């Protein structure tokens, strides 16, 4: 958004205790008002990840629950699926909506039993 200056955060992907990918900020960010900014409003959170129908696909796993404005989450393939892309998708919460992508393409793995 114009009117702010600062540097983006660096993130590190780690597996949490449930085996899902989780992003952790490696450094803090400072934003400074630049120019004329008339008025302020609170940005909406992305508290309900199910509000984005793209994330309801059972072939996807994500860390997008209960995000605040500006938070970032990772979307990758569920167990039993192979991700066709080299990297998982990163989505960010911007004023109540998830932006970013595209979401990964997940191909079902054949059963081998």
Task: Describe the model.
The chain is an all-beta fold. Helices cover 0% and strands 35% of the residues. The protein contains no helices and ten strands. It has strands at residues 4-5, 11-15, 21-25, 32-33, 60-62, 72-77, 81-83, 89-94, 97-100, 106-108. The mean pLDDT is 77.
Structural class: mainly beta
Q: N-to-C SSE series?
A: EEEEEEEEEE
Cα(first) to Cα(last) distance is: 52 Å
User: How many β-strand stretches?
Assistant: 10
Rg estimate, integer Å: 17 Å
Question: Biggest β-sheet: count, sense, barrel?
Answer: 4 strands, antiparallel
List the SSEs and their pairings.
Layout: E1 4-5, E2 11-15, E3 21-25, E4 32-33, E5 60-62, E6 72-77, E7 81-83, E8 89-94, E9 97-100, E10 106-108
Brief description of this entry?
This protein has 113 residues and is an all-beta fold.
Characteristic key phrases:
113 residues; mainly beta; four-stranded antiparallel β-sheet; two-stranded antiparallel sheet; 10 strands; 35% strand; globular
């Amino acid at each position: 958004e114009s009117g702010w200056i600062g540097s983006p955060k660096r993130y590190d992907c780690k597996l949490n205790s449930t085996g899902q990918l989780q992003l952790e900020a490696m450094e803090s960010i400072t934003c400074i008002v630049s120019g004329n900014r008339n008025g302020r409003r609170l940005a909406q959170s992305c508290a309900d990840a199910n509000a984005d129908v793209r994330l309801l696909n059972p072939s996807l796993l994500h860390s997008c629950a209960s995000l605040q404005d500006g938070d970032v989450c990772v979307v990758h393939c569920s167990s039993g699926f192979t991700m066709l892309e080299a990297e998982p998708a990163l989505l960010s919460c911007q004023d109540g909506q998830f932006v970013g992508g595209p979401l990964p393409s997940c191909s079902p793995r054949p059963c081998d039993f």
